[in-house]
Amino acid sequence: AEYERQMLEFLESRYPEILNEIKEKNDISDELDAKMKKALDEFKTVFQPPTK
Hints:
By secondary structure, this protein is an all-alpha fold. It is built from three helices and no strands. The chain has helices spanning about 1-15, 15-25, 30-45. The radius of gyration is 12 Å and the shape is elongated. It starts with a helix and ends in a 6-residue tail after the last helix. The mean pLDDT is about 95.
């Protein structure tokens, strides 16, 4: 759940156009798919797992 929360915050702050396009078109084009992959690759480098 923490991964999802941080990922959503990341997308909202750095790639809001991805979320907007999904909401508007309710479809994922090849171009949007490429943007999503780039964003997720970038997110993997900044994700901070919770410490116990």
